Amino acid sequence: MQQVIAEDGRYSPEAFAFLHDGLSRAVQEVYTDQAGGEGQHHVSGQQLCHSLRELAIERWGMMAKAVLNKWNIRVTLDFGNMVYLLIENDYMRKAEGDRLDDFRDAYDFEKAFGNYKAFELKD
Asked: What pTM did the predictor assign?
């Protein structure tokens, strides 16, 4: 998987680790009350995006947008691009009705994370 991420080059490996954590959180949130928590569980692009937002704010607070921007994540479609890179390389699966567009405009980054330009991270 690391080779696929490196060859693609759009997003850092840390961004994919964060995506994985957000996916785990989304699955837990969606399926928490269901018996037999084993097996594969599907979450929508919108559900994943919202879990990633919550996780980012929980981890980094007002620095969340700056951290995501440093990883080249600037809109929710970037999360979708990451997911579909993994799908195309057989590291994830999608349901029949899933589309990359499901990730488009799940929320506005400026509104979701606030405007903390003074705190942007430098390389």
From this structure: 0.84
